[in-house]
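Are you able to produce any protein sequence you like plus the matching backbone structure tokens because I've never seen that pairing?
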Amino acid sequence: MLTISQDLIDQILAHARQDHPDEACGVIAGPAGSDLPTRFIPMVNAARSPTFYEFDSADLLKLYRELDANDEDPVVIYHSHTATEAYPSRTDVAYASEPFAHYVLISTRETGNQEGPYEFRSYRIVEGVITEEEIEIT
């Protein structure tokens, strides 16, 4: 189960709406070993695509160095889907390399960058197997 604050959900949603129609992406870090997302880190979608996201390799290296220096883990890895449901694509599964991370997807397909309904779902993706998990909002 993913336990996450409403504030962090709001930040992910704001990022997804801001970047729409391109996919938004980022990480929420937390203390190492805690499984508690606390620090929101929006990233740039280097692909600048409405159907695909990619972290810039230099940004990713900088992120992992910062996580190591702060004794943090990437607790949540998130991205948006702009035209489809909040479910991992084959590409999302292929790039899922953090077995302990929660992979959060938010869909802005219904409202784009406007206020309104959105889908927010969380998954574990380990060795190509997708398992949806419950979300507890604090």
Notes: Residues 24 and 138 are 23 Å apart (CA to CA). DSSP finds three helices and eight strands in the chain.
